[in-house]
Amino acid sequence: MIAGPTASGKTALAIDLAKRTGGEIISVDSRQCFRRLDIGTAKPEKEELQQVRHYNISVLDLTESDSVADFLERVKQYEQEIKARGRPIIYCGGSTLHLQSILRPLDDMPDADSDNIQNLNEEIKANGIEQLYERLQEVDPDYAKKMDGMNRQRIIRALDVWLQTGKPFSSFHQNKKIEIPDDLEVYVLHHPRKKLHERINVRTENMLNNGLISETEGILSYGYSPELQALNTVGYKDVISYLKGDISRHQMTEDIKTSTRRYAKRQITWYRKWEFATWLDLEVNSQEEAIRKILKA
What we know:
The protein is 53% helix and 7% strand. The protein is mostly helical. The chain has two domains: 227 residues, Rossmann fold (3-Layer(aba) Sandwich); 59 residues, Histone, subunit A, CATH 1.10.20.
């Protein structure tokens, strides 16, 4: 498993590792699974996808709902396919809940209640997502604090469980120590804070220069609603605000950089709880040296 904060170089290292080992990569990213979200989710380039077989990339339409449980169901199928070919599995991504679902079984909690989901979506349409987020902070501050930003789908799910049970969503989460299987090694890529921020700034500029705005315009021109959960993503939601005329291009760029830095900080906080993980400092080690360490393990 190759984890790490956004812009830490996970994709490049995983692809290099896969080439050397004959491995195949399962993307552990909550947005790369959607078609059309290419530039803003930093999907591997076409050439890279041709060089190494990838899974969980561009498998869903933007209108389809997805959850950690749905992701895990797909992963189990991918694992069977890869193992049947006798290939090593390389999990690569930074979506913390998705990564952890691979390491520890999901908790037993009630299925979604369609009436609750509809009512909560209608509340968002009428009053905005901020009001629901404030309610979540009141009834389940622990989960609100751990969440990757103001994630509409997760806010709705957490409030749905609370409405059904009267218990905080976070109370269903196991706190047992994660037991790592003998055949799995977990690595977290690390850069000093200043260096990571520089990488985030460069990647943001590259995404904008490489067509993030036109990609977003194309999605909207196909008739996709800007309110879709898949588009409530750092980068896309900022570009949509810019296209609406709500913010300037400069403000859009700075907002993307700021939100990405905050997201990276939350990711790092999460990974620091993984006592079982091996951290690879890419300031001290080159990618080549990091891969050698992995291969020697």
